[in-house]
Amino acid sequence: MKEKLVLIGNGMAGVRTLEELLKLAPEKYDITVFGDEPYGNYNRIMLSPVLAGDKTIDQIMINDRQWYIDNGITLHAGKKITHINRVRRQVETAEGEVFEYDRLLLATGSRPFMLPLPGRDLPGVISFRDIADVDTMLETAKSYKKAVVIGGGLLGLEAANGLMIQGMEVTVVHIADVLMNQQLDKPASDLMLNELQAKGLKFLMSHETAAIEGKKRVEKVVFKNGTEIDTDLVVMAVGIRPNIELAQSAGIHCERGIVVDDTMQTFDPKVYAVGECVQHRGATFGLVAPLFEQAKVCANHLAQMGIARYVSSITSTKLKVTGIDLFSAGNFIGDESTEDLVFKDAARHVYKKLVIQDDKLIGAVLYGDTVDGAWYFQLMRDGTDVSSIRENMLFGQHHIGDSGHGAANSVDGLPDDAEICGCNGVCKGDIVKAISKHSLFTLDEVKAHTKASASCGSCTGLVEQLLASTLGSDFNDTPSKKAMCGCTSMSHGEVKNAIKDKGLKTISDLMVALDWKNADGCHSCRPALNYYLLSTWPDYQDDPQSRFINERVHANIQKDGTYSVVPRIWGGVTNANELRAIADISDKYNVPTVKITGGQRIDLLGVKKDDLPKMWADLSEAGFVSGHAYGKSLRTVKTCVGSEWCRFGTQDSTGLGIKVEKMTWGSWTPHKFKIAVSGCPRNCAEATIKDFGIVCVDSGYELHVGGNGGIKVRATDFLCKVATEEEAMEYCAAFMQLYREDAHYLERTAPWIERVGLKSVQAKVVDDHDNRKVLAQRFYESQERSQDDPWAEHAAKQRENYIPIKQVG
Amino acid sequence: MQNWTEVGPVESVPQKGSRVMTTPDGDVAIFRTSSDEVFALFDQCPHKKGPLSQGIVYDKRVACPLHNWVIDLSSGEATGPDEGCTRSFATKVEDGMIYISL
Ligand code: SRM
Ligand SMILES: Cc1cc2nc3c(=O)[nH]c(=O)nc-3n(C[C@H](O)[C@H](O)[C@H](O)COP(=O)(O)OP(=O)(O)OC[C@H]3O[C@@H](n4cnc5c(N)ncnc54)[C@H](O)[C@@H]3O)c2cc1C
Ligand code: SF4
Ligand code: FES
C-alpha cells in the first residue's frame, strides 16, 4: 500500500512541492490536499495584474482541478484543517472529518497583518492577499470613489495602482519617508514617488494612522498628527505574519514561523513545512523565489532521496506596475565598510546604485533602466571580484571592454549558469537547451517547459531576448505593453489605433476621449501625439506648441541658447556661388563657427534667435532651403562621386542621391531618417548604416534598410535588388511611408525593423507590387503638402515668434 | 509697493507657449498656459541656464529644452527629483494686457 501524504495549504509553495515530488517519485504517495480557498492552485503574485485588469482569474490558474484528477491527487478545496493529532497521525477539518497521514506537509502561507486600530473590523477595511480581496476591491470600485491604501511597500503600491486603474481616487499612506523601504533607498524612492504622482496616485508620507472611523462602513481614516481623510475603502498592506496557529496548537516548535532545518523538516520528523509559514535559520520569507527552492529540497526528502539542503540566498525584487522599471537586490543601503557607485540622470528618470564591499558587489538598486539587473545579480551571487571592471560597471555589461553596442543583446553576454528567472531559479543554459531541444517558438512554450517567466513575469523581456537570439529571425515576439508616458496607461500602438478607430482629430479631443490624466499632457506625449495625428490625417493642423523647440523654430538649440543653421546641400554637391553666399551670410550675422558636418553639409553655429528669420530670408534669396538638421524628418542624402568621376563607379550615385533628396525632403518621420547612395560596393557613402541605403552595382541597385550609425551601430538588412533608378525611388518612397505609418514615435528604422521583422517589411514593400505602389502614392501625396520651405515661410510670416515681446532698459 | 510694467497683449504670447522680454538684468520668459494664466520666470534654467522660454509648456510647468528638467511656472522651482529654483516675477492681466512686477 502506498504511504499517505497530506498537504495543508493549497498555495504556491505547497503545490510546487507536489509538482517537484511527482517528477521524482510519481507513484510513491497517495496524496490528499486541503485548501481553505475554494479554487485549484493559482498564482497569487498575479493578483496584482488581475486587479489592474490585465489578467483574469482564469488566466492565473496554475493547476486547475483537472490537474489534480490527472495526477491522482484528492483535492478538498474550501476545507480548512483545524486540528492535527500527531500521535494518531490524523488531521481534522472544521466540519469534523478526519483523515490519516504518514507524512504531513504544512504550507499554510501567511496572513496579512492588520494594524490593531479602532475600526479595523468595519466593512470596507480589507487586506490584499487572495481572490476574495480582489473581488471586494473590484466590486467597491464600481460604486465608490475614494480609497486609502495603508502601507507604501511592494504590495501596497500594486494595490494602489490597480485601484486607480479601476477608476478610484487613491491615497497611499506610508509611515516612513521612503517608499518600499525594504527595497529602495531615498533617491530611488523619490523618483518613483514622482512618477506615481504623475500617474495620479496621491501620497501621505510620514503619516501614522490612529483610527478608522465610520457608521455602517468605513468613512474616514484619522492620523496621529490630527489630520484625517475621507474614504470608502481601506486596504491594509503593512506586512505579513507566518500562519502558524495550526502548527502551534499541535505542539510543533514555532518561533516567528514554523521552525525547519535545512531539509525542511519540522521538529516532528513526520511533518515537513515549506513556504511563507516557515522560519529557516532565523529568516522568514515573502517572495516566491526562495519558496520554490524550498519546494525542491522538500520534494527531494519526501521522495527519500535525501541529498538536498536548503540554503537561503539573496533575492531580488521588481514592482509589477506598468511603466515603472525597478530592480533591487542584496544590501543596497551599505555602511562605513562599503562604497557606493551612483549614477543619476533625473531627466531620464534613471537612478542606479551599486554597493561594493571588499571588491565584491553586495547590493544594487536600479530605477528606470533595469536591463543589467540580471547581470548585477549574477555578479552578487557569484561573489565575483569586480575591481577590474569597477569604473565602467555602472554603465552596464555592454560598457565593459567595448562600445558602440547597445543593450539589446545583453543576454548574449551572460554565462550559461546566469539566472534569468529569479522566481523559479531558471538559468540561461536551461532555457537555451529547452528551446533547441523541444523546438520552442513562443514565450508560452518556454514558460510551460522551463517555468521561466511563469511566476511574476518580470524576466519576460530576458526570456524573449533568449528566444530571439536562439531562434534568430524565426522568433515571433508578442510585444509587451508599455505605457506611452505617465499621462496614460495606453501603449503607442493602442493610441495609434484609437486615433484611426475613433476618428480623433486633435490633441485635445484625443486627451478627452482617451482619458488622459493630465489635461495638457506632458513634454513626452505631446510631440508623439502631434506626429501621429499629422501622419494619420492629411488635413491635420500642426500644433507648434507640441513640438520640441528645434522643430518649432526650424533650427537646433545649442548649449548657450543660440541656434545652429544647416542649409540643405542636395546630395552633398555645392558650387562656388553657393559657398560664396554662405560666406557672405556668415559675415553678415557674425557666425562664430562654420563647420563641415558629418552629413556632407555646412553648419553655421551660434546664431541668435532674433537673427534666424533674417538669415533665412538671405539664404532663401541665394536658393537654399532648410536642411531639417533639427527634425524628426529626412536629414541628409549622402552620396559619393560615382560613375561621373570615380574609376570604379558603376552608376550615377550623386545624381540619384540628389533626385532621392528632392523627392523625400521635408517629410516628417517618427525619428530622423538618413539616406545614402554609394556608386559601387566599396560603399564610400556608408549606405549600409543608413535608414535607407542604395549601393549601385553593374546590373542595378541594391537596396538596404534599417541601418544606424549612432548609439548602437547596426548594419542594414538587404531589402532587395532592383534594375532601374525609377524603381529604386519608388521602393524608397514606399519604405519611408510604411515606416511613417507603422513605427512608434522616436523609434528609428533599426529598432522598428527588429520589432516587426524584415520579412513583414519585405512582404509589404517587395513582394506585394500593388501595395508598394499604394504606399508610394500615399508618400507622394503627403509630400505635396510638406515641401514648402519652412524657413521661407517663417522668414516671411512668423518673424514675431523670434523677437522679444518687449525690451526694457 | 509693486511697480507694474506693461508687457504686451495676452494674445501675443501663444497658448502653451512663451515670449521673451529683455531687461538689463537678463531675459525674462513670459508664459501663457492653456487656461490663459500668465507667469513670468527669469529665462535661465537652474540646471545649466537653458532658456526656459523655449521649452514645452503643460499645466503650470515647462520642460527645459536642454535636458528636460521640469520647472514649476508659479514658483520657479524644479519639480520632482531635481533641485533648484529660478527667479519668478509677479504678473497680472488687466483688460487683456499683461503687466509684470520686476
Ligand atoms: C552636426 C552633426 C555633427 C557634425 O558636426 O558633423 C550632428 C550634430 C548633432 N547630432 Fe548627430 N550630427 C551629425 C551627424 C550624425 C551622424 C553621421 C551621419 O549622419 O552620417 C550620426 C550617426 C548616423 C546615424 O544617425 O545613424 C549621428 C548620430 C546622432 C545621434 C544618435 C542617433 C541614433 O539613432 O543612435 C543623435 C541623438 C539623437 O538623434 O537622439 C544625434 C544628435 C545630434 C544633435 C542633434 C544633438 C542635439 O540634439 O542637439 C547634434 C546637433 C548639433 C547641431 O545643432 O547642429 N546625432 N549624427 C552632424 C550633422 C549632419 C547633418 O548634416 O545633418
Ligand atoms: C498581491 C500579491 C502580489 C505578490 N507579488 C509577488 C511578486 O511579484 N513576487 C514574489 O516573489 N512574490 C509576490 N507575492 C508573494 C507570494 O505570492 C507569496 O510569497 C507566496 O504566494 C507564498 O506561498 P505559500 O504557499 O507560502 O502561501 P500561499 O500561497 O498563501 O498559500 C497558503 C494557502 O494555504 C491555505 N491555508 C492556510 N491555512 C490553512 C488550513 N488550516 N487549512 C487549509 N488551508 C489553509 C491558504 O488559504 C492559502 O491558500 C505577492 C503576494 C501577493 C498577495
Ligand atoms: S557626437 Fe553629436 S551629439 Fe555628441 S557632441 Fe558631437 S555633435 Fe553633439
Ligand atoms: S539647462 Fe535646463 S535642464 Fe539642463
Automatic annotation (TrEMBL), chain A:
Keywords: 2Fe-2S, 4Fe-4S, FAD, Flavoprotein, Heme, Iron, Iron-sulfur, Metal-binding, Nitrate assimilation, Oxidoreductase. Pathway: Nitrogen metabolism; nitrate reduction (assimilation). Residues 316-383 form the NADH-rubredoxin oxidoreductase C-terminal domain. Binds 1 [4Fe-4S] cluster per subunit. Binds 1 siroheme per subunit. Residues 558-621 form the Nitrite/Sulfite reductase ferredoxin-like domain. InterPro entries: BFD-like_2Fe2S-bd_dom (IPR007419), BFD-like_2Fe2S-bd_dom_sf (IPR041854), FAD/NAD-bd_sf (IPR036188), FAD/NAD-binding_dom (IPR023753), FAD/NAD-linked_Rdtase_dimer_sf (IPR016156), NasD-like (IPR052034), NiRdtase/SiRdtase_haem-b_fer (IPR005117), Nit/Sulf_reduc_fer-like_dom_sf (IPR036136). One of its GO terms (biological process) is nitrate assimilation. The keyword 4Fe-4S applies. Transmembrane segments: none annotated. Its cofactor is [4Fe-4S] cluster; FAD; [2Fe-2S] cluster; siroheme. [4Fe-4S] cluster binds at C640, C646, C680, C684. Its EC number is 1.7.1.4. GO terms for molecular function: 2 iron, 2 sulfur cluster binding; 4 iron, 4 sulfur cluster binding; flavin adenine dinucleotide binding; heme binding; metal ion binding; NADP binding; nitrite reductase [NAD(P)H] activity. Residues 420-468, 484-533 form the BFD-like [2Fe-2S]-binding domain. Pfam families: Fer2_BFD, NIR_SIR, NIR_SIR_ferr, Pyr_redox_2, Rubredoxin_C. Residues 631-767 form the Nitrite/sulphite reductase 4Fe-4S domain. Belongs to the nitrite and sulfite reductase 4Fe-4S domain family. This is Nitrite reductase [NAD(P)H]. The lineage of its organism: Bacteria, Pseudomonadati, Pseudomonadota, Gammaproteobacteria, Thiotrichales.
Automatic annotation (TrEMBL), chain B:
The keyword Iron applies. Residues 1-21 are annotated as: Disordered. Keywords: 2Fe-2S, Iron, Iron-sulfur, Metal-binding, Nitrate assimilation, Oxidoreductase. One of its GO terms (biological process) is nitrate assimilation. It is an enzyme of class 1 (oxidoreductase). Its EC number is 1.7.1.4. It holds the Pfam family Rieske. PANTHER family: 3-PHENYLPROPIONATE_CINNAMIC ACID DIOXYGENASE FERREDOXIN SUBUNIT (PTHR21496:SF23), FERREDOXIN-RELATED (PTHR21496). This is Assimilatory nitrite reductase [NAD(P)H] small subunit. It comes from Methylophaga muralis. The lineage of its organism: Bacteria, Pseudomonadati, Pseudomonadota, Gammaproteobacteria, Thiotrichales. The gene is nasE.
